[in-house]
Sequence to fold (159 residues):
Amino acid sequence: MLDAPLSAEEKKFVGFWRLLYTDSYRIKDGKEVFHGDKIETRAGTSYIIYTSSGHMMVHLMNKEGRTKYAGAQPTFDEALKTFRSYNGYFGRFVTYENQNPPFVYHSQQGSTTPGAYSEQKRFYQFTGNVLRLGGPPNLNDKGELAGGHLYWERQPAIQ
Fold:
């Protein structure tokens, strides 16, 4: 695999990251009015990978409720349950570290959701070996900005 001409900031992303947890928040008039608990529904079974070739991929899978099929082929209900417990996409990535706040674009080239290929804007922050990603918040019906974060832990090299 050939390396892409990544910026110093993009090189910080390169690696294999495991999901620790997610959380949510709401902001009104510039003040945080709610910060949700850590949610670990997909912790330990979800990964995001950034490569030195400038590509990325993310696999989000529920850690519970995924059971082995009763037979060699899944029933319709088994297949539907499996599909609903997994999401993923892949594509290229590029950072905009000079913006405030800095963000990374995940340019989807493929996804488990057909036709959902798009630019996924993710604000980011590095704290030690943890990468926090979050999409732009949305305005809810109470006039609050509502959003969430995913916290990823860089995985060490296999020994």
In short: The two ends are 22 Å apart (CA to CA). Residues 85 and 104 are 26 Å apart (CA to CA). DSSP finds two helices and ten strands in the chain.
